[in-house]
Amino acid sequence: MTSRRRPSHRIILFATAAALLLPGATAVAAPAPIPAAPVISGGEAQPAFDPAEAVRQDVWVRAPVDSDGDGKDDEVHVQVVRPAGASGRLPVVYQASPYFSGGNDVTNHDVDVELYTPEGGQTRMALPPGPVRGRSGDELAANGITVRDGQITWAYESYFLARGFAVMYGESLGTGQSTGCPTSGARNETIGARAPIDWLNGRAYARDAQGKPVLARWASGKVGMMGVSYNGTLPIAVATTGVPGLEAIVPIGAISSWYDYYRANGAVVAPGTYQGEDLDVLANYVYTRADRDVCKPVIDKIEQDEDRITGDYSRFWNERNYLNNVGKVHAAVLSVHGLNDFNVKTTQVAQWYQAISKAGVPHKIWLHQSGHVDPISLRRDEWLRTVNRWFSRYLLGQDNGIDKEPKATIQREDKSWVNEADWPAPGTKAATASLQPGGNDTGGLAPVEPRTDRPVVESIDDDATKLAADLVAAPSSPNRLAYYAKPAKTPLRISGTVGVTLQAAFKREAANVTALLVDRAPDGTSRIVTRGWTDPQNRDEIDKTTPITPGQEYRIQVPMQPHDYILPKDHSLGIVVLSSDNEFTLRPQPGPGFTINLATTQVSFPIVGGQQALDAAIG
Question: Does this model's pTM top 0.90?
Answer without folding.
Answer: yes
